[in-house]
Amino acid sequence: MGTSLAKYAIGYGSTIAGAILLLSMLSLSCGNAEDVSVTASPKEAVVSETASSEIRKESGFSYEIYDAVLQAYVDDQGLVDYRSLHANRSDLDAFNASMARLSPKEFEAWPEQERLAFWINAYNAITLERIIDHYPIKKGGVIAGFRYPHNSIRQIPGVWKKLTNTVMGEEITLDSIEHDMLRAKFKEPRIHVALVCAALSCPPLRNEAFVAGRLDEQLDDQSRRFLSNDTRFRIDRAKKRVYLSAILDWFGKDFAGIYNTGGKIAAHSKTEGAALEYVSRYVSDEDVQFILSENYSVTFLDYDWTLNER
């Protein structure tokens, strides 16, 4: 389990001093800056007119820089141009630095949806940092080297449980963000189609930040996109079998109690029934009819840990 966040942290001084500090942070390229080119990619200068008019701000905390990173380096399929992001990482580093400076006292005053959106964005932004810190990924230990693809995030030692980032003045792991913050504090199983662990079988990475005002809409859209890919959900009618993503097996208990509470799907276990009822809300009418028929078996699909790189 990761380090829990302190309830309070020392805030910044005057507004002017904070602004000067922010400007100085935006001018720096963090991480392995001395080893990479910091020449701006043409993509960095391209921000759509729509995005420019929708500056993502939550209670004074801005996702504008992170939004620009996602628009520049993530395509419509949710795949990432890690090579270009690795060479032009300053905006991502600046956003992650802004999460480090955020005051816990300010954060705790945010509405629940803002806090939920923050932690989802934090997980995904830090995962991007993990990949470019080790890009191009090399084989890890003996077991990882043979068990997973050579470019998999699983080749990075301690990627979830040991490597840390500073968020609100405290060191925290990806594992702690997922389990101690998101799963423990929010009863929202759709986080599992929003958190992206940089693998092909993961949900697609959105090319925009999650924001409180549209969070429910974004999570519904993520659910539809996730389930539209037959490597995550499909039905074999001839064999009377429903194939589901392993994510719905690993975290099935998070869906139980939220979905299928009326027992609409009764011929399966509590966790399978909940996962199936969740799926039925985002697939075609034909697929819904089959799922509700109850006369089928469930198989969880193998997970492809290949890097989600374009």
Written account of the structure:
This protein has 310 residues and is mostly helical. It folds into 2 domains: 15-192, no CATH class; 233-300, no CATH class. The chain is 42% helix and 8% strand. The protein has 14 helices and 7 strands. The strands form 3 sheets. The protein has a 3-stranded mixed sheet. It has a two-stranded antiparallel sheet with strand order 1-2. A two-stranded antiparallel sheet has the order 3-4. Strand 5 (233-236) and strand 6 form a beta hairpin. Helix 13 (270-280) packs antiparallel against helix 14 (285-291). The radius of gyration is 20 Å and the shape is globular. Mean pLDDT is 85; it is low at 1-56.
Key attributes of the depicted protein:
three-stranded mixed sheet; 42% helix; 310 residues; 7 strands; disordered N terminus; two-stranded antiparallel ribbon; 2 domains; 14 helices; mainly alpha
Q: Number of domains in the coordinates? A: 2
Shape: globular
- Count of helical stretches: 14
Q: How far apart, in Å, are the first and last alpha carbons?
A: 32 Å
Task: Note the run of SSEs as H and E.
Answer: HHEEHHHHHHEEHHEEHHHHE
Strands, total number: 7
Rg over CA atoms, rounded to whole Å, is 20 Å
Mean pLDDT: 85
Structural class: mainly alpha
Summarize the structure.
This protein is mainly alpha-helical. 42% of the residues lie in helices and 8% in strands.
Topology at a glance:
Layout: H1 15-26, H2 49-53, E1 57-58, E2 61-62, H3 64-73, H4 82-87, H5 90-101, H6 104-108, H7 112-133, H8 142-147, E3 164-167, E4 170-173, H9 174-185, H10 215-227, E5 233-236, E6 241-244, H11 247-250, H12 252-255, H13 270-280, H14 285-291, E7 297-300
Parallel strand pairs: 6-7
Antiparallel strand pairs: 1-2, 3-4, 5-6
Helix pairs in contact: 3-5, 5-7, 7-9, 13-14
